[in-house]
Write a structure and sequence with these properties.
By secondary structure, the protein is α+β, with helices and mostly antiparallel strands. It has two domains: 2-189, 2-Layer Sandwich (Double Stranded RNA Binding Domain); 191-259, Rod shape-determining protein MreC, domain 1 (Thrombin, subunit H). Helices cover 23% and strands 32% of the residues. The strands form five sheets. The protein has a six-stranded antiparallel sheet, with no helix packed on it. Strand 3 and strand 4 form a beta hairpin. The protein is elongated, with a radius of gyration of 22 Å.
C-alpha cells in the first residue's frame, strides 16, 4: 500500500487538471476524503522491500477482503462528520482552499497472555492516524494518532481463535476510525488570515500583516484564483516579506493563509508526510 500513498499527488493532479475553472472566488475550507485507507504493509530497506512487522497477516487478510467496505466507510464517515465541507472533486480554483483527509493504519498486531486457569487474554492493538493535508503545500494542518486495544479472553486451544481475532480487528478498526474522525471534527476550527500586498521592493512582496497577525516565516500564502502562491521569507511583528517564484505581484493583491487552529497557536512548523518507515514519520521542515 506504500505505492498507493505515492500515487496521491498524481491522482489529485488528474482531478484538478481535468476539471473546468470556475470564475467564482471560493471561500472557506473544503475537504476531499481520500477514497482509500492507507496501510503501510511494506517497508523499503537497502536490501529491498520487506513486510512491515507492525502489520499482521490476519489484519492484511481482513483488509484485503473488506477493502471496498473499509474505503467507502471512511468516505461516508468523513462526509457525515463534515457535511458542509466535503467535496467529491477539487476544482482548479478550489485547490488553494482544499484539504485532503486520509486515514492511515500504522500498526495492527495481536498477542496472547496465558492465564493460570487455562485461558488466554488476547490483545489486539491497532494504531492509526488521520491527516488533513494541504495538497499544494504538503502541510499537514491536522495530524492525530490513536491506539485502540480490544481484549477478549479465550480458551487456550479455541478452535475459532483466528475468526475471533479477525472480529476483534474489525471492532478495533471501526472504533479507531470513529474516534479519530470525532477528534478531528473537534479540532477543526477554520481561521482565514487575509494579507494585502502593501509594497513590492526589489521584486519582493511586503504584506500588511506579520507575526502579530498570525503569519510567520516559511508560511505559504495562497491567492483565491488558483494562481501561484507566495512564500514568506522573513517576518517581524507587523509585516512579512515574501517571494513568488512564478508570476508577477502588485500592490493591492490579496493572499490568504488558512488554518484549522486559533490564531495564537499558528506558530507550529510545517510538516510533511513520508512513508520511509513503519511509523509514517512526520518530518519538520
Amino acid at each position: 500500500m506504500t505505492t498507493l500513498w505515492r500515487l496521491i499527488p498524481v491522482i489529485l493532479w488528474a482531478i484538478w487538471s481535468s476539471t473546468p475553472v470556475d470564475a467564482k472566488a471560493p471561500e472557506g475550507f473544503q475537504i476531499y476524503p481520500f477514497p482509500a485507507v492507507i496501510v503501510n504493509s511494506e517497508i523499503t530497506t537497502p536490501e529491498g522491500v520487506v513486510p512491515n512487522a507492525l502489520i499482521s497477516g490476519e489484519w492484511q487478510k481482513l483488509y484485503q477482503s473488506q477493502i471496498i467496505r473499509f474505503n467507502d466507510g471512511f468516505v461516508a464517515a468523513i462526509t457525515q462528520a463534515f457535511p458542509e465541507q466535503v467535496t467529491e472533486k477539487i476544482l482548479k480554483t478550489d485547490r488553494n482552499r482544499s484539504l485532503v483527509a486520509s486515514l492511515h493504519i500504522v500498526r495492527a498486531r495481536h498477542y496472547s497472555v496465558p492465564k493460570p486457569n487455562g485461558t488466554q487474554d488476547v490483545y489486539v492493538p491497532v494504531t492509526g492516524s488521520i491527516y488533513f493535508t494541504n495538497p499544494l503545500t504538503a502541510e499537514v494542518v491536522i495530524a492525530l494518532s490513536l491506539t485502540v486495544k480490544p481484549i477478549q479472553t479465550l480458551a487456550a486451544n479455541d478452535p475459532q481463535f483466528e475468526s475471533r481475532v479477525t472480529e476483534l480487528y474489525e471492532t478495533a478498526f471501526v472504533g479507531l476510525q470513529e474516534a479519530l474522525i470525532q477528534q478531528a471534527k473537534d479540532r477543526f476550527t477554520p481561521e482565514v488570515i487575509e494579507a494585502v500586498i502593501v509594497d513590492t521592493p526589489f521584486g519582493l512582496a511586503q504584506t500588511s500583516l506579520g507575526n502579530d497577525g498570525g503569519l510567520g516565516q516559511g508560511d505559504i500564502l495562497l491567492p483565491e484564483d488558483g494562481s501561484p502562491p507566495l512564500k514568506l521569507l522573513a517576518c517581524d511583528n507587523t509585516g512579512c516579506v515574501g517571494k513568488r517564484n512564478v508570476g508577477s505581484i502588485q500592490k493591492g493583491d490579496r493572499f490568504v493563509k488558512r488554518s484549522t487552529g486559533k490564531l495564537k497557536s499558528l506558530d507550529k512548523p510545517s510538516v510533511f508526510v513520508t512513508v520511509n518507515g513503519p511509523d509514517l514519520a512526520l518530518s519538520t521542515v
